[in-house]
Design goal:
This protein is mainly α and about 70 residues long. Helix content is about 60%, strand content about 0%. It has one domain. Helix 1 packs antiparallel against helix 2 and helix 2 crosses helix 3. The chain is globular and about 25 Å long.
């Protein structure tokens, strides 16, 4: 994924904010990260076909596994 990586707590917060219908721009502002980084994560969620609700329910290790370098190639 292009852009910076965020830690698991920020990722959980990003998902929670998207559940509350915040825009990518607002999420980026609240998390103090680049909007393109948020866009990249949202794109990855879409590619995976996983809802925000499903993502929010994943345990830390499963959520982290979705964003390893290996899982994003190909």
């Amino acid at each position: 994924m292009a852009g910076q990586r965020i830690d698991i707590m920020e990722l959980r917060t990003l998902i929670a904010l998207k559940l509350k219908k915040f825009s990518n721009r607002k999420v980026a502002l609240l998390l103090k990260i680049n909007r393109k980084t948020v866009d990249g994560y949202i794109k990855r969620f879409t590619e995976l076909g996983i809802t925000y609700e499903e993502l929010y329910e994943l345990c830390e290790s499963d959520l982290n596994d979705l964003f390893t370098e290996e899982s994003q190639t190909g």
